[in-house]
Amino acid sequence: MKKRLLALAAFLALTLAGCGQSAQPQQEEASTPPATTEATETEVTAGYEDGLVTQVASLKGPTSMGLSALMTSENEHYEFNIYAAADEIVPLVVKGEVDIALVPANLAATLYQKTNGAIEVANINTLSVLQVVTPGDVEMSDLTALKGKTIYMTGKGTTPEASLRYLVEKNGMSWDDMTVEFKTEATEVVSALQTDPTAFAVLPEPFATVAIQQLDNRHIALSLGDEWDRVSDNGSQLVTGVTIVRKEFAEAHPAAMLQFAADAAESVAYVNGHPEDAATKIESLDIVKAPIAKLAIPRCNLVCMTGEEMRTALSGYLDALYTFDPQMIGGKLPDDAFYGA
Fold first, then answer.
1. I need a labelling partner for 176 at 20 to 30 A (CA). Which of 20, 64, 89, 333 fits?
2. pTM higher than 0.90, yes or no?
3. Is the peptide bond before 25 cis (omega within 30 degrees of 0)?
């Protein structure tokens, strides 16, 4: 147990250090500087393990964009698979066929309950991607500008609705102060904006970027993530995606976990620092076309948030979702073990 705690502590420390880098991801073992944690009884060093290919699953969209530089590298120590729906990833994690997965934050909490604590969160990989798209002449300093407006969005009964309801209440408003029309797909929201030039929309990236590129006289007037930061009084943030790991895998392969921390953090830093080049990588993975990806990357809030900052941001967000619907996070708030060591 002492060895595991030391390994995961070093994992968090290395992830934080990697976030500040912007070089290309590591290609060979020899090019990766070792990170170590020392103790009287044991020492864990970041590194690839002979014969181990870590299975990593992610979703098509912003949660995969941060890892795009690593995914397109020649690193043979990982096998990456991108899925269209989170429901495809869940059984693979449960059966042990996936070691690490990048999933929606609320799904991580639900999976933690369903597996009796067999997974834990390694980091937050994506903060808010929700944007308020308005007519071009509309300026917004807060959500009170939505009063009396028609808003198109997706996600009825899910996290987008829960997040908007939380923010509406924090702004002293009622849901009835506006008219919300839910659509099944983001593309339907874009079509509705084209039909109604006075309408507003809440769209996730990269669809918000698609909307303002395709439609005349439209712009992004407000980020719901920025609005959450403004009204939050507990340090929580609007979280889109987290990275989870099977505890069994983390305990069996502490060196590989340290190495993944370094590689993933470096990839995120590269994508944020080189959006034009990263966009071509993202298109090659069939996530989104390069011109849209280049514009969307700065608004996707790709991060590698760990430690106490992660715990504070994520726990407060899950608490807001729990207030909206406990079943959205598996029926109850996760305990401390959910947040790793």
1. 333
2. no
3. no
